[in-house]
Amino acid sequence: MPQAAVEFVNSEPQFHRPCPVCEHDESEVFWSKGELKVNRCAHCFMLYVADLSGEFASGKHYEKADFHLSPDKLNSDYSPVRFERELRIFRSFCASGKVLDVGCSTGGFLFQLQSRFPEGYAVIGIDIATAPLGHAEKQGISVIREPFLKHDFGTERFDAITFWAVMEHLPNPKKFLSRAADVLRSGGHCFILVPNLRSLAVRIVGKRYRYIMPEHLNYFSPETLLRFVQTEPRFRVAALQSTHFNPLVILQDLKNRGEGVDDAARARLLKKTTAMKESGWLLGAKIVYRACEQVLGHFTLADNLLIVLQR
């Protein structure tokens, strides 16, 4: 893969990279949002940030743990409703085995998996954000405090590897995909969830959408996600789904003039939507909501894309 070129802007390192899918370096700016510039590849039409600031290129940004450790975010992440879709899809492909969650943060997914199915799985999380990992350990989750690309797994192999909302953050996602193939056993599964560039939310809100944000470096559509995973020949696509829908995000972002949504506001909305999902008084609304989500998923218009790969 071509090496990133380094420049300095206002004494800060700026790293230029080619397209993270096809590796061509011909693109033009597609979206401008504050200081964020999102380019579109002239060859495969992938949308990505071509010029990265040093904190995102190095991962230092993720040492800022205020958002992930805020009470509203933690309560939402550890709510039984938080990972219900991911768990349902995950369990349909991996009923038991050894699981590695890459970018596990505070450990919410592994906690749900381990607590609900204590006899079925051996779980471990890996991340570079040390403070959230400390919280995961307090919940009984085994963790690795090392970059996924650098950790020596030796002969250890996994039945499943998960990337829940991780690939969009990575300067070099193809290396992570290849590394996942290295440490999965034959027949094992890799699960990748990313925001959906073709979602109803993006179609309505455009670049005002809150998840078009500086820490998101890669913006996948169903087509570019498929092109991306097909760059690793050891994987075959087992499933591709569109899932999740939050109409409150659309309503809030329509009112927004395009400025970024701060972490406190994001955490408050998480708390609100989690409480609504947990409430027993909103059964009728939940039925309508689930029907809407199913329709959007059928047409690949839900908020996220979830692809399942088999080694």
Descriptive tags:
Rossmann fold, 4-stranded antiparallel beta sheet, 11 helices, 14 strands
Task: Characterise this structure.
This protein is of the alpha/beta class and 311 residues long. The protein has a single domain (62-310), classed as Rossmann fold. The chain has helices spanning 54-58, 71-77, 84-93, 108-116, 130-138, 173-183, 200-205, 222-229, 247-255, 263-278, 283-298, and strands spanning 5-9, 12-16, 27-33, 36-41, 47-48, 51-53, 97-102, 121-126, 142-144, 158-164, 184-195, 218-219, 236-243, 304-310. Strands 9-8-7-10-11-14-13 form a seven-stranded mixed beta sheet, with helices on both faces. The protein has a four-stranded antiparallel beta sheet with strand order 3-4-5-12, with no helix packed on it. Helix 2 packs parallel to helix 10 (263-278). It is globular and about 50 Å long. The model has no long low-confidence stretch (mean pLDDT 90).
Number of domains: 1
The general outline is globular
- What structural class results from the helix and strand content? alpha/beta
CATH class: Alpha Beta
Name the CATH superfamily assignment: Vaccinia Virus protein VP39
Low-confidence stretches: none
Count of separate DSSP helical elements: 11
Radius of gyration, in angstroms, nearest whole number:
19 Å
Number of strands: 14
Q: What is the third-level CATH name, the topology?
A: Rossmann fold
**In this structure, how is the largest beta sheet organized?**
7 strands, mixed
Q: How much helix, percentage-wise, in residues?
A: 25-40%
Strand order of the largest sheet: 9-8-7-10-11-14-13
Q: Please report the distance between the alpha carbons of the first and last residues.
A: 23 Å
Task: Please tell me the CATH architecture by its name.
Answer: 3-Layer(aba) Sandwich
Give the amount of beta strand, in percent: 25-35%
The chain-level mean pLDDT equals: 90
Report the order of strands and helices.
EEEEEEHHHEHEHEEHEHEHEHHHE
